[in-house]
Amino acid sequence: MTRFTRFALSSAVFAGGLLTGCAPDDRSLTYQADYSDHRPLRVVGFPSAGSLETVQKAVWRLADGDTDGLAALAVDDTQADATAHNWVKVFGAAAEEEVTADFYDEGSVRQVVVLYFAGSGQIKEIEARIGEDGSWGLTLAEPDPSEAAAEPTWAPPKPGGSGSRTSGALSGS
Question: How, if at all, do strands 99-103 and 42-45 pair?
Fold first, then answer.
């Protein structure tokens, strides 16, 4: 097969994919661009696909200083803008470095996640859950800056230290 024929054939296949709707959508392209523009998120525990994507986007928005983008992830926007501003102010610079997300619970509709910011040593508890519209988002309800900056009292000092590695199944049964 000549080089021109192979090029024409591959171009026809690509064009056919576009015409049949097989091209990636804008959401997919945005996610791929975000993924390639940021540090990978380290993960401990068992996230669901929805909770993982939501937490990953939250860390990216923190790293970018994007309060509007972070607030857009809220399942309830009552206090989302103030909370997003607080989180970006406190954790934005730390999110530019290595971050580990420790996922707790089984994650079918809600998951508590503890973020460990390696560079700063900060620890932040967040909650990813399914909102009323059926899509995953974050609970952004910390309009008080001191509340937003507070570390969880129950979380271990390092990821994976307190049972997050379980799949949600009861052990010993």
Answer: parallel
Query: CB of 111 within 8 A of CB of 104?
Result: yes
Give percent helix, percent strand, percent coil of the chain, each to the nearest 5. Answer: 40, 15, 40
Can you spell out the DSSP letters for 40-68?
A: PPEEEE---HHHHHHHHHHHHHHHHT-HH
Q: What percent of the chain has pLDDT over 70?
A: 71
3-state secondary structure of 132: coil
Q: Is the Cβ–Cβ distance between 121 and 58 less than 8 Å?
A: no
pTM of the model: 0.77
> What CA–CA distances, in Å, run from 60 to 49, 63, 79, 125?
17, 5, 20, 16
Mean predicted lDDT score pLDDT of the chain:
82
Classify 21 as helix, strand or coil.
coil
pLDDT for 93-107, tens place per residue?
Answer: 999 999 999 999 888
Q: Which residue has the tokens 């590695």?
A: 165
Q: Give the ranges where the chain is alpha helix by DSSP (H).
A: 3-19, 26-37, 49-64, 67-71, 80-95, 145-149
